Amino acid sequence: MPNRDPRTTPEYRRLVVLAAKDDAERQKTIRVAKVVTGDPGQRLAALTFDDGPHGEKTGDLLSVLRRLRVPSTFFVVGKMALRFPELIERIVLDGHELGNHTYNHYRLTQIPLTQVAGELNSTRDTLTGLVGSPTRLMRPPGGEYNEAIQKIIAREGYTNMLWTDDPADYKKGRTPERITELVMRDITLGGIILLHSGLPATVAAVPGIVSRLRTQGYEFVTCSELIQRGNGLLHLQNHSARISLTAAT
């Protein structure tokens, strides 16, 4: 008799739903419309991975993160989540956090405003169908948004998660060493590091990034935890002051 795929068992499904529900409950406490970075008074960093999941490449990344015991946030594309539902489940079960990166990965500033909410909510519905709970965190493709789009993001109940540290790992010729060098060059306390889950060079760079940041005393957290441990403070992009987080009203 062939071995039964454990992912088809009720127990496996129950674990996925419970893990996703835990994230959803934690995110209910987030009352901000936009986050640029965490509290500059805490040696915390959040690794974030955009655009996936990407089959075997994302699977390799998850294996590395599990070995290193690093919780991360994956901003996933809805249509890709439907292609690789098993990876969405694995992300959740491995203790990572899901974020919304739109359904089609359209640049939101280049589509009609009437389509923006649909791009977000289609991915919300997809993730709810796959793991039982939605995510309140989102990131616009390319980081492109404007005041009108930000209002839609807030109105629909999402938090716009931006970043402080972008090594442009997607650029042609980027090596693991160069990606690591650029991350370390720009790292700041409370930093949010933007990477991509489908790039072999990025997967190879992660162990070095983690090792060097841990040597400097950094603790890795998900985006939700970064917000919650920030004591309601947001460091401005010029790193000169702290202000109250913007309420999502």
Write the layout of secondary structure elements.
Elements: H1 10-27, E1 34-35, E2 44-50, H2 55-68, E3 73-76, H3 78-83, H4 85-93, E4 97-100, H5 113-131, E5 137-138, H6 147-155, E6 159-161, H7 176-186, E7 191-196, H8 200-215, E8 219-220, H9 223-228, E9 233-235, E10 242-244
Parallel strand pairs: 1-6, 2-3, 2-7, 2-8, 3-4, 5-6
Antiparallel strand pairs: 9-10
Helix pairs in contact: 1-4, 2-8, 5-6, 7-8
Shape: globular
- What about the largest sheet? 5 strands, parallel
The oligomerization state is single chain
Topology order in helix (H) and strand (E) letters = HEEHEHHEHEHEHEHEHEE
**What amount of the residues lies in strands?**
5-15%
Q: Which structural category fits the helices and strands?
A: alpha/beta
Average pLDDT number: 88
Figure out the total of helices.
9
Low-confidence stretches: 232-249
Helix content: 40-55%
Rg over CA atoms:
17 Å
Q: How many strands appear in the DSSP assignment?
A: 10
Span of the ends, CA to CA: 57 Å
Structure description:
By secondary structure, this protein is an alpha/beta fold. It is 43% helix and 14% strand. The chain has nine helices and ten strands. It has helices spanning 10-27, 55-68, 78-83, 85-93, 113-131, 147-155, 176-186, 200-215, 223-228, and strands at 34-35, 44-50, 73-76, 97-100, 137-138, 159-161, 191-196, 219-220, 233-235, 242-244. The strands form three sheets. Strands 2, 3, 4, 7 and 8 form a five-stranded parallel sheet that branches. Strands 1-6-5 form a three-stranded parallel sheet. The chain has a two-stranded antiparallel ribbon with strand order 9-10. Helix 2 (55-68) runs parallel beside helix 8. The termini are far apart.
